[in-house]
């Protein structure tokens, strides 16, 4: 379970990237809600990744 917590931020960033790629493929580029959700998910993932790995050391 600790290894899952350690990589939770990276997993969120990867999920956000996949959603961003899918939005490009399906033509959701004009939908600002999807784009805003993805950027928020990436920021949260980055912050979580930094915090969890700082605690692990």
Q: Based on helices, strands and strand pairing, what is the structural class?
A: mainly alpha
Work out the helicity level: over 70%
Strand content: under 5%
- Tally of discrete structural domains: 1
> What gross morphology would you assign?
elongated
Note the main sheet. none
**Strand count:** 0
Arithmetic mean pLDDT: 88
N→C terminal distance: 17 Å
**Cα-based radius of gyration, to the nearest Å:** 13 Å
Query: Order of SSEs, N→C?
Result: HHH
Q: Indicate the low-confidence ranges by residue numbers.
A: none
Number of helices: 3
What can you tell me about this protein's structure?
The chain has 57 residues and is mainly alpha-helical. It has one domain. The chain contains three helices and no strands. It has helices at 2-6, 8-26, 32-56. Helix 2 packs antiparallel against helix 3. The chain is elongated and about 40 Å long. The two termini are 17 Å apart.
């Amino acid at each position: 379970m600790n290894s899952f917590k350690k990589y939770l931020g990276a997993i969120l960033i990867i999920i956000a990237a996949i959603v961003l790629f899918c939005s490009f493929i399906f033509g959701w580029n004009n939908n600002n809600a999807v784009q805003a959700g993805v950027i928020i998910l990436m920021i949260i993932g980055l912050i979580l990744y930094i915090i969890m790995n700082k605690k692990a050391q």
